[in-house]
Amino acid sequence: MKKKIGLAIICSLLIGASVPTYATELYEQYISDFGNKVSEIKGREFKFLIDPKKVDQNIKIAFKDIWFQTKTVLEKNGLRVLEREKKTWALKTAVKTFFDTPNMDLWKKGYLIRTTTTFQKNRYPETPIKIVVKRINQPFNQIIQARLSMIDNETFGVIEDNVGVGSKGQLVGYIEKTVGWSMGRGKLGEITLADISQYVPELSNLGISPQTELIAHPAFSTRCRPGYVEISGLEGRVAVSMEAWSHTFNGKPFIYDFSLGYEGDFINMKETHRSTEKAFKALSKELGTKLGYPNADRYVVSKVRVLLNQPR
């Protein structure tokens, strides 16, 4: 048994149980369809996918352009936007690597494995690396009820709602359940299913050989956090993130996104949900043609689906 170095519950931008949409607000639809079960949702992340062909080839210039355009729309629609006073345009690089069998068996069974390694300015990888396992691509009730735990039997999955805007201006959403931990570099092995199953035992019950070699699908990430937003009904402020993904280090991005998220008691945050959903619908309406990624709703506003070529 390899020694576990650290432990953290990590919630990120990824894929989950897609929820159909109607004319009502998305949060109201959740409550109507699933009742008190929505209290299991501990956070929401809102995403706007952006087409690299519609922004400058220089990533920092592209980030600035995206920021000023989105900032204008969000402010017009009720969110207060604040820019960082220092290191506004500082960039952070990382490689996010997604692992699956050659036939994408984990994806088909509703699981996702990801490691994240961040880099210092000299491109030297930092330690520890972060590892997450997610339950994805399943109906709402299956995600809610699915067991996903660490080997210590004390750490269970955190559920997050992910929200974007579809091609006709309607909100689309999906939920995911995540467990995560941190580990020193070199401790994980060759990334077989057995390497991960010793920490998340549910992976050993999928009918896949534990010695199956997992194929790496890397996304080289460049991220900028230029500011914050204040949302009605929410204490404090939340950070805004912009991220570009490339197939190689310092390569040409194949997708960007603009995102923000918050945590709290889902049922008792209606004002916050309403304000944020309204602002992101406006973002899509005003900037969808100018900046938006084509057919974003086919990928359920998920960069991972784009990377893995898994439209719904």
Major beta sheet, strand line-up: 3-8-9-7-6-5-10-11-12
Q: Can you count the helices?
A: 7
Which percent band covers the strand fraction?
Answer: 25-35%
Whole-number average pLDDT?
87
Structural class: alpha+beta
Q: Strand count, sense and closure of the main sheet? A: 9 strands, mixed, barrel
Distance between the amino and carboxyl termini: 38 Å
Number of strands: 12
Q: Give the low-confidence spans.
A: 1-16
Overall shape: it is globular
Question: Nutshell version of this structure?
Answer:
The chain has seven helices and twelve strands.
Please describe what this structure looks like.
The chain is an alpha+beta fold. Helices cover 22% and strands 33% of the residues. It has seven helices and twelve strands. The chain has a nine-stranded mixed barrel with strand order 3-8-9-7-6-5-10-11-12. The longest helix is centred in the last third of the chain and has 22 residues, at 270-291.
Features:
312 residues; nine-stranded mixed β-barrel; 7 helices; 12 strands; 33% strand; disordered N terminus
List the topology elements.
Blueprint: E1 6-7, E2 17-19, H1 26-34, E3 41-50, H2 59-76, E4 80-83, E5 91-100, H3 105-108, E6 111-119, E7 129-135, H4 140-145, E8 158-165, E9 171-183, H5 193-197, E10 215-230, E11 238-246, E12 253-263, H6 270-291, H7 303-308
Parallel strand pairs: 3-8
Antiparallel strand pairs: 1-9, 2-9, 3-12, 4-10, 5-6, 5-10, 6-7, 7-9, 8-9, 10-11, 11-12
Helix pairs in contact: 2-6
